[in-house]
Design brief:
about 55% strand; mainly beta; about 220 residues; 11 strands
Length: about 220
């Protein structure tokens, strides 16, 4: 039996324009973050390679999003990673983190400029200190889609990221990706992990900015 309502068209009318106040467990991600000691373990022809990297992530609130009666609050994000040894970008990624207050659903959409996208999902409480989302190759709801070459050479079968909010205000993540590497008999466990500290505060979402500006003009009048 479907958990969704019969009326899939009517959107909610009691939508709070302040995204930052309605992000649930994602609220602590909002803003700019940086770390210089990330660790990446990735497959190479001669065996696994361990690299340290420099990471910058920016999370900014977006306006509330509705799928008919379904309502999300979320953050748009950009990840940029470099290494000490090389000037070229080591990893670039964009996407959204979304929170559905009515159900506790947490979703991450991600896209990387090597021809891969994914939609991962999990559940959490509004005050959760840990968030985990998963995506599985072959799933039409929360799945992974890659180019023909990546399917052939480095097929991604499973993706999971666990985020932990630390007492000092920082947050840590562990990303585990299961790869089927061409020419190798066993799956490769690709792992990234890092702890990031805040370097900037978030900017309110566009709708909240418009309302704040109007209220400010009214006060002056």
């Amino acid at each position: 039996m479907t958990p969704f309502p019969a009326d899939v068209f009517t959107e909610p009318t009691d939508v709070d324009p302040d995204t930052l106040a309605n992000l649930g467990p994602l609220r602590r991600l909002a803003g700019g973050w940086e770390a210089r000691k990330g660790v990446d373990l990735n497959p190479k022809a001669d065996g696994p390679e361990r690299r340290e990297f420099i990471e910058r992530i920016d999370f900014q609130p977006i306006d509330p999003q509705a799928n008919g009666p379904q309502l999300f609050y979320g953050l748009r994000y950009h990840i940029h990673i470099t290494t000490v040894e090389e000037d070229i970008t080591f990893h670039d990624q964009v996407g959204y983190w979304l929170w559905e207050p009515a159900t506790g659903l947490v979703m991450q959409t991600l896209a990387i400029p090597r021809g891969q996208v994914a939609l991962a999902a999990g559940h959490a409480t509004a005050d959760a200190d840990t968030i985990t989302v998963d995506a599985e190759r072959g799933q039409t709801e929360y799945g992974i889609c890659s180019t023909a070459f990546l399917e052939y050479a480095f097929r991604t079968d499973h993706y999971r990221i666990t985020i932990t909010f630390n007492a000092d205000g920082s947050w840590s993540y562990v990303t585990d990706t299961t790869l089927a590497v061409h020419g190798q008999d066993k799956p490769f466990a690709h792992r990234d992990q890092n702890t990031l500290v805040r370097v900037s505060d978030p900017v309110p979402n566009p709708w909240a900015q418009i309302i704040a500006a109007r209220e400010g003009q009214g006060a002056k009048a």
